[in-house]
Amino acid sequence: MVLVPDVLIGVAEMLRLLTKPGDRVVINTPAYPPFWRVIREYGLQVVEAPLSRGPKGWDLDFGVLEEAFAGGAAAYVVCNPHNPTGRVFTRAQLQTIADLANRYGVAIVADEIHGPLTLPGATHTPFVALGDFAAHRAATVISPSKAWNLPGLKCAVAVAGSDAVASRFSDLPHDLHARAGNLGVIASIAAFTEGGPWLRALLGHLDRNRRLLATLLEKHLPGVRYVPPQASYLAWLDCTALELGPEPAAFFLDRGRVALSRGLDFGAEGAGFVRLNMGTSAQLMTEAVNKMRSALADSNPRADIRVTLPGDGS
């Protein structure tokens, strides 16, 4: 393991170790927006491998992924659990990724920052846990910053998948570890060793919120398609049926004063989508849906705009 300031820097530094300038790096779209910037800043080329979309949500498309690998990719940044879709890839899927990577000589860098936030019904498998053969050119980057709300303290860890990768850690900038915060190190140790009760309570709250959001949307915004995430506190909402154009986030901000993440920031597949943060109270999330509904009702006065929290009696 090696200490790094945050997961994004850790991903970038692992790419620096495992690739050379000009190499091609695969990401799954829709994708965490900073991936494009960081990959390009490090002199690498981005290759998009879109996830497939079905009735049960988004998932890996191994045909598309193999095509990207066969096309000369040097590395693959796998975000698992996936941001923004909330998909948790299974151990079998990760093994297939490893098999393809070995076949085409592709290095794997796994961003697993949302791993501790895997919700009931799914199981997160760290990529480097697949074993030395599967992960001999792989590294996982983790941090307690999402699950324990510590990003401002700056601390993450990169974990080598094999001795061969670990031996390359000596090539990292000698002061990289010093860029992490001392308070971040202390807080991370506390989170990983004593933060179990906090995490269990948080997971219960997020599980309730993802189910509540499904109820609210089904009842009051049925035009919004939503597949509850398997991990984290992010909801990826398909608003295309609302006919608000490719940027519904702008509509909801302007008309409803609800600030949502812009889908197009996550790639072309994000057209017509927004990302909603469920890491809040049930009351605030209900208020957000209520304001979204009201914004739509301004264009259709016949619509019933009242949204209530189930069981609140109002």
Number of beta strands: 13
Number of structural units classed as domains: 2
Overall average residue pLDDT = 93
Examine the coordinates and then state which fold CATH places here, giving the name of the CATH topology of the largest domain. Aspartate Aminotransferase, domain 2
Instruction: Please estimate the helix content.
Output: 25-40%
Report the major sheet. Answer: 7 strands, mixed
Choose one word for the global shape. globular
Could you tell me the strand content as a percent range? 15-25%
Cα-to-Cα separation, first versus last residue: 53 Å
Question: What is the CATH homology-level superfamily of the largest domain?
Answer: Type I PLP-dependent aspartate aminotransferase-like (Major domain)
Please give the structural blueprint.
Elements: E1 2-4, H1 7-18, E2 24-27, H2 34-41, E3 45-48, E4 52-54, E5 57-59, H3 62-70, E6 73-79, H4 91-104, E7 107-111, E8 138-142, E9 156-160, H5 163-166, H6 182-194, H7 196-220, E10 225-226, E11 234-238, H8 248-256, E12 261-262, E13 273-277, H9 282-297
Helix pairs in contact: 1-2, 3-4, 7-9, 8-9
